Structures are given as structure tokens and as C-alpha cells.
Amino acid sequence: MNMDITIVVPSYNEAESLPHLAEWIDRVMKERVADFGGTVSPERGISYEVIIVDDGSNDGTWQAAEKLHAENPAYRGIKFRRNYGKSAALNTGFAAAQGDVVITMDADLQDSPDEVPELYRMIKEDGYDLVSGWKKKRYDSKIAKNIPSKLFNWTTRKMSGIYLHDFNCGLKAYRHDVVKSIEVYGEMHRYIPVIAKWAGFGKIGEKVVQHRKREFGVTKFGMNRFINGYLDLMSIMFMSKFGKQPMHFFGAVGSMSSLFGLISLVVVIIMRLSGRIALTNSVWFYLSMLFLVLGVMLFLAGFIGELVCRNSSTRNQYLIEKEL
């Protein structure tokens, strides 16, 4: 029998939250079968698995995952030896997922499992490749999170052409083919819709979801995530446009720089021959040489660097300590 749903839960120091989250998920799966849409038979019910990815926690997160697995084999666990970040946890969870629909949610109870039936229905019946949650009403700090998040989402919409309100919402649903076709690394989890669109999955929807106050622990993200977020956006937009033809970017910029340097150098030499300037005393001579060298370096170093990074065989290799 095929698995209907896989729920991937990246977790970092969430030992207190996991038992409550698991209880909530189980209740939704058992009591709300009718809400999953016409593709699910009430007699058969919904088949599901929950993959908890322990991202190098130092509290009792793994012990909580082990206990859940012992009580219910539907709960699986993957434990990293150290903290790699949310993107690594999601990518590893995607690789292990078996469900026709894959849903991601954070372990901190700020994402509601009550949203799962409708997210599943939108994928199976409405035909979406990906449905992203929109935390329209948030309980975060306006200065620390809400205002920077709105600016971040506005910029991403304009640059990607994907009109979502909340790219970074952890509650998302994916068709199975999507998670098996994309690769999430670094801190690219913020841009999974962009990566999915780049991979050819263009039917991307959005659903307003509940956002709840954190009940246990503290947030794991600081203000540096917004700086890193914009850098990652530049990277993903570059890779989406020039990843297959890096010469189109580096060759163009490098050629323009070299051409400017060459023209400047010719002008400087002509002025020198006419006796109007002393060659080595002219700042334009050194600027000409700078642009020539910069063009060549940009052309070669950037081209080689991006190809090496993109084709690195170890980019998504993580040291996994245990699996359930």
C-alpha cells in the first residue's frame, strides 16, 4: 500500500514540544479523515509517517524521537552528529520521504497540524505541485521579525515572479515528485518555491494558516538570517538563470570590464604618444590595467568557482549518527 502522507519535522532542541506535536498529529490523522478530500477512503483511513530530523540537538530531542518511535512505528528519526541547519534537515527528510504528499512543519508547535488535511487536499484534488502556508496573523515581534519578513518577501516576489506572501513559512505541502527533484542546501530552505519553479514545477499555491505562539524553548533564528537571506536570494537567482550557462554571465561582465580597460589603455597610449601625459604618472593607465586584469579574473575565477561549487560531490553529504 502506498503511503499517503509524509510529515518532515526538522528539530533542534525541541524535546518539550515533540510529544505534544505528535499527539496533535495523531489526533488529526484519526479524527479528521473526511477532511482529506475524496481521494481518501473513510474505511481505509489515511496512511502516514512522521520523519523527525534531529539537527544536532543537545537536549533530549533524540530521546523523545526514540520514545515516539517505540510507541508508534509511523514515527521515524534521523539524527545528525552536529548542527547542520534547517536546509540540511529538510533535504535529508525529503530523501527519506515515502508519501505521495510531503508536508513540512516546524517542531515548535507554532505550525498547526490542523492545516494538514486541507494542504493534502489541495495537492491531490486541486493539482498543485506545492502549497505554501501564509501566516497572515503573526505573534512574533514586529520589529525583529514581522517588518524585516515583509521586506524580504516583497523582494523575493519581485525577483522570482512567484507571488507568495510568506516564502519562509515552515508549513508547506509538496507533491512527491517535487521533493525528489529538488536539492536544498546552505540556507536555501527559504527559497524552496523558487527552487521548485526552477525545476519545472510551476503550479504553486498558497493557503492562509494559523500561527501560534511558541510554548516551549526559544527561537533558533537571529537577525543575521535576513542578511544571509538576501545573499541566498542573489545566489539562487543567479543559479536559476546562469547555472547551466555560467559563461553567459561571467563572460559578459568580464568582457565588458576588459573592453573598457582596453579602450582606456588605447586612449592613454595615444595621449602619451602625443606628449600630453606621462604614461606611468597617469592614473588612467593604472585604471585601464586594473579593468583589464579584473575582467580576466572575473571571467576565469568566477566561472571556475561556480562550476566547482555546483558540481561538488560532498555538498549534501551529512554525517548521520542514527536512524530509526
Give an overview in words.
It is a single chain. With 324 residues, the protein is an alpha/beta fold. 47% of the residues lie in helices and 13% in strands. Strands 7-5-6-4-1-2-3-8 form an eight-stranded mixed sheet, with helices on both faces. Helix 5 (142-160) runs parallel beside helix 8 and helix 9 (246-273) packs antiparallel against helix 10. The radius of gyration is 25 Å and the shape is elongated.
User: How much β-strand is present in the residues?
Assistant: 5-15%
CATH superfamily of the largest domain: Spore Coat Polysaccharide Biosynthesis Protein SpsA, Chain A
Give me the CATH architecture of the largest domain, please. Alpha-Beta Complex
Number of domains: 2
Per the CATH scheme, the topology name of the largest domain is Spore Coat Polysaccharide Biosynthesis Protein SpsA, Chain A
Strand order of the largest sheet: 7-5-6-4-1-2-3-8
Regions with pLDDT < 50 over 5+ consecutive residues? none
Roughly how many Å apart are the termini? 21 Å
Rg over CA atoms = 25 Å
Mean pLDDT: 83
Largest sheet: 8 strands, mixed
CATH class of the largest domain: Alpha Beta
Shape: elongated
Q: What's the order of the H and E elements? A: EHEHEHEHEHEHHEHHHE
- Secondary structure tally: strands: 8
